[in-house]
Design brief:
Layout (H helix, E strand, L loop, with lengths): L3 H7 L6 H15 L8 H15 L4 H10 L4 H10 L10 H12 L8 E5 L6 H14 L3 H4 E7 L2 H9 L1 E3 L8 H7 E2 L8 E4 L1 H4 L2 E5 L12 E6 L8 H13 L1 E9 L12 E5 L2 E4 L14
Parallel strand pairs: 1-2, 1-7, 2-6, 7-8
Antiparallel strand pairs: 3-5, 4-5, 8-10, 9-10
């Protein structure tokens, strides 16, 4: 898979090897995606699908569309196809259990706080965050917490806004949560279940590319950016982490995927617990492990 011979065979009816290389360069520049060996087949399949969706058969015409589109819409469509969007409700539950303790632990509220879910994909993670807030704070949760959910994929954002999932998809959640926060799909039927309005209204979806300069957002007490940086180059990861840290409140927390520890990155952050980091304190006072506030 991915050998030069196979690529030559595949590109006979699609993009040339040089054009595929140019697409890789675009993905690296605009998405920060690392060009890893062996991805030629995937790239060929996804660009071929994009050409069919656009009704384009000439590879040169396709490359012209990508590189000269003033709106950037064609490239965003290709981003949607190239980006992996694997996610799940209650994924890596230790983070959610820790957040629930944090929210219920006597936080002195001065108004509504926003938690940023910086790679929201199809919505499972930000909706889980809203449910955690509801469990920790009760009916007052919408007045105290809102979730900003961003993603680079417009297709995933549309799916997330709908808030509709199969019963199988919501299975990782506690049974009581499935009963309380979803409607439909009951009696063992693997049909559509929709997140109830009280939870959907806490989550606000917005398009954002982590590789590009951030808009005026924040600061946030918690930023979840989990299981997305593994696809970026080391240099891009470092840039994103530094910008995320700058969007935290002085005592804010950055949570990354368990496979994405900040070891090796020159991040201005203190380790709190696995895959949880706190913005480094400027006073020189040691941060207490556990990150209570």
């Amino acid at each position: 898979m991915g050998s030069p011979h196979n690529v030559r065979q595949m590109t006979a009816t699609g993009l040339s090897p040089s054009a595929l290389l140019r697409v890789q360069e675009l993905a690296a520049t605009r998405l920060g995606m690392e060009n890893r060996p062996g991805k030629e087949v995937l790239l060929h399949v996804r660009t071929g699908r994009h050409m069919r969706e656009l009704g384009v058969t000439d590879p040169n015409e396709y490359m012209h569309l990508l590189e000269t589109d003033p709106t950037g819409e064609r490239m965003r469509e290709l981003m949607d196809l190239l980006t992996t969007n694997h996610t799940a409700f209650w994924r890596e539950p230790g983070h959610f259990e820790w957040l629930k303790e944090q929210l219920a632990g006597g936080w002195k509220w001065t108004g509504q706080e926003t938690i940023w879910c910086a790679a929201s994909s199809s919505g499972e993670e930000p909706y889980t965050l809203a449910m955690v807030a509801r469990e920790a704070l009760g009916p007052a949760a919408p007045e105290k917490i809102r979730i900003l959910a961003t993603d680079v994929s417009t297709r995933m954002l549309d799916t997330a806004r709908a808030g509709v999932y199969t019963r199988e998809r919501i299975q990782p959640l506690p049974e009581a949560w499935r009963q309380q926060y979803f409607e439909g799909g009951r009696n063992g039927v693997n049909g559509p279940c929709r997140v109830k309005a009280e939870i959907r209204q806490m989550v606000h979806f917005r398009w954002l590319n982590l590789v590009e300069p951030f808009p005026a957002v924040g600061p946030f007490p918690y930023i979840f950016c989990r299981n997305v940086m593994i696809y970026f180059s080391q240099e891009t990861r470092m840039q994103i982490v530094q910008r995320l840290l700058q969007r935290l409140t002085p005592d804010g927390y950055l949570l990354v995927g368990y496979a994405e520890g900040l070891s090796g990155l020159e991040a201005d952050a203190d380790y709190v617990r696995p895959a949880v980091y706190r913005r480094k304190q400027k006073t020189g006072i040691a941060v207490k492990q556990g990150g209570d506030r």
